[in-house]
């Protein structure tokens, strides 16, 4: 399959009063470029996320967002840490004895003291397997969207390849007629200037002209490149860089065809080829 680098997937997993939400967004890029926006409580998940994503994707700018939310329908129980409160009270007594004018700790300060309130939240070690599985299923969804988009891109490329084959096929039959037209013009000019014709010279000039405008090699290479593009699309996999290189080769041959053009219709064909190549190139930029 051909995969696009553009895609989006989002999934959530409910777990003991918590909701883990993961989003993956990807756009085109020359390389695999990963960025993460992860809640502080889940920052330790980044290395595992990076490894899982890199194992499935080869190119694209991928943004990963991972959040942990408490479910409003399942409030968490808060339990004061009795041992810590006892230590704080003893410490406060010592301080007040030494500094009688010091303000005692308020309830608010105690509740915000690190570790005073213990809750029933799961530790990261308990969350990690769930996050890993959530990442795998979200990646499956992301790849499915990239595959569907890739199929559309491949179909559009094939349409333009078919158009280029039509343009290529239209060039070769015109060459003999163009040479004959040149020969007729040369004959008329010689008759006007010399009032006679030098058949041998006309033949030589016609042969030289035919060699100068011969585009058989360019047409052959164009067909070969088009065949290779279709082969790559059929084979699938990571094909974007190879296709981009072939776009450069197609453009080179179209330029040569245009420079050798000896008739306006051939020039028009070369220009139309370049239009089709540019349209294919735009699609190729989004292929993995």
Describe this structure as you would to a colleague.
Helices cover 62% and strands 15% of the residues. It has 288 residues and is of the alpha+beta class. Helix 1 links the parallel strand 3 and strand 4 (60-70). The radius of gyration is 36 Å and the shape is rod-shaped. The model has no long low-confidence stretch (mean pLDDT 82).
Would you tell me the structural class of the helices and strands?
alpha+beta
CA radius of gyration = 36 Å
Output the number of helix runs. Answer: 9
Measured between the Cα atoms of the first and last residue, the distance is 11 Å
Order of helices and strands: EEEHEEHHEHHHHHH
List its salient traits:
288 residues; 4-stranded mixed sheet; rod-shaped; 6 strands; alpha+beta; two-stranded antiparallel sheet; 9 helices
Task: Please provide a brief summary of the model.
The protein is of the alpha+beta class and 288 residues long. The protein has helices at 46-56, 82-98, 107-111, 124-171, 174-194, 199-212, 216-235, 240-260, 264-284; strands at residues 7-15, 18-27, 32-38, 60-70, 78-80, 117-119.
SSE map:
Elements: E1 7-15, E2 18-27, E3 32-38, H1 46-56, E4 60-70, E5 78-80, H2 82-98, H3 107-111, E6 117-119, H4 124-171, H5 174-194, H6 199-212, H7 216-235, H8 240-260, H9 264-284
Parallel strand pairs: 3-4
Antiparallel strand pairs: 1-2, 2-4, 5-6
